[in-house]
Amino acid sequence: MCSVRAPIPHHRFGQTTIAKVSNSDELRQMLVDPWFESETIVIKPNWVSMEPADFTDSKSLRTMFEALDSRIVITESHQIARSLNLLRNGMSFTVGDKEVSWRWLLKGDGWNWLIENPDWDWFKKGGHWGQIKKEEKAFLDEHGFTDLFKEFDVSYVNVTDEIWSGRIADSTEVKRSVESRFKPVQTEKLYSMVPKKLYDLRGSTLISFARLKMYASFTMKNLFGMIPDPLRPWWHGPKNSRIATSIVDINKVYHSFFNVYGICEALYTTAVPHPEGKFEGVYSGKYNIGEGSGVVAFGRDLVSLDAILLNLTDRLILQVPEVNRAPIEMAQEEFGAYDKEALKESKMKVGLWLSP
Q1: Angle ∠(182,191,231) on CA atoms, nearest 5
Q2: Rounded to an integer, what distance in angstroms lies between the CA atom of residue 209 and that of residue 263?
Q3: Does residue 183 contact residue 334 with C-beta atoms inside 8 Å?
Q4: Pick from 165, 180, 155: which is nearest to 70 by CA?
């Protein structure tokens, strides 16, 4: 007798689907979009930090790899917040008459210094670039990514290394392609920030594989990590005055070359804000870890997907930062408006799935 597969719990809201899956086979059954038939699929994980449940882990990536039949390319930039594996505070350097370190850059005075000094030449020439490459190798090794990539024959493209090495797509071609579909970006240098290795894969599917974070950072924000700076205070701007534009602009760039598909996952663990939480993130504050929700939300329309996720998690977030709400609102002008009725419907149908 043939066994009958149990139906997978899921709800659809326009182009957005939210499902509960427990393994790669169930995920494969849900990912039926023709875009997944692409010969090559580029996946952008969320590796902004190395804090528990706050980054795309190897277990979630394995589930994704097993659900796909395409050749896979992983892409990400260097990020100082996840590059403190070998040196607890990173490398030291001097600002004025003060000796500081990478950790100093993450917040406060260091963050503000980077807003005023956005040129990374000091980092490239002072031995820091070599060190951050070693830190990344340690991150990939320690968390199982190196072995996973070998097992699935996955290529890895580090955006920072490619761009800083001058291996970039022709900026004139990038500008022409972007402006044939969208309004010009506000920061022209973005046209010189597309790695040639990725540009050569244009026409493929690009998955923004985001982590469900209870501080409202979803699939569009995940592509912010395609900007090569190892920290992006300048792109945030003073008092976050530039971040919404920066997020929308980098999305315009990559939407011009790829079929960009959003997937936001809480497959195995979720960081849940709590004022007395066991863990504390650099940017997310204190939190506890929820286990095994199995939730995955996905679709072609990243604006609608992120708007629904924001609406579903707003009561769980201690305070939704405007820095994460604003890009969703602004993106409607370029990518189309989200359906406000879908927000209400999703709240009724799947809200409890995301309860800690």
Answers
A1: 110
A2: 5
A3: yes
A4: 155
Tell me what pLDDT residue 213 has: 75
Q: pLDDT by residue (tens digit) across 86-114?
A: 999 999 999 999 999 999 999 999 999 99
Q: Nearest CA to 199 among 234, 226, 220, 219?
A: 226
Question: What single-letter DSSP state applies at residue 5?
Answer: P
Q: Please give the Cα distance from 221 to 304 (Å, whole number).
A: 13
Write the CB contacts of 129 (distance below 8 Å, at least 6 apart in sequence): 123, 164
pLDDT, residue 183, reads 97
Which residues neighbour 188 within 8 Å (Cβ) at sequence distance 6 or greater?
Answer: 175
Q: Which residues contact 218 (CB under 8 A, 6 or more apart)?
A: 210, 212, 262, 264, 305, 306, 309, 310, 324
Please write the tens of the pLDDT for every residue from 155-209. Answer: 999 999 999 999 999 999 999 999 999 999 999 999 999 999 999 999 999 999 9
Tell the burial category of 34 from Cβ atoms under 10 Å away from its Cβ (0-12, 13-18, 19+).
exposed
Q: Assign 3-class secondary structure to 106-151.
A: CCHHHHHHHHHCCCCHHHHHCCHHHHHHHHHHHHHHHCCHHHHHHH
Measuring CA to CA, which residue among 140, 132, 47 is closest to residue 90? Answer: 132
* Cβ atoms within 10 Å, residue 141: 12
Alpha carbon distances (Å) from 74 to 49, 153, 225, 284, 310: 17, 11, 13, 25, 26
Order the strands of the 40-44 sheet from edge to edge: 10-13, 16-20, 295-299, 259-266, 205-211, 40-44, 71-76, 155-158
pLDDT score of 291: 83
Q: Does the reported pTM lie above 0.85?
A: yes
Name the helix (H) or strand (E) containing 170: none
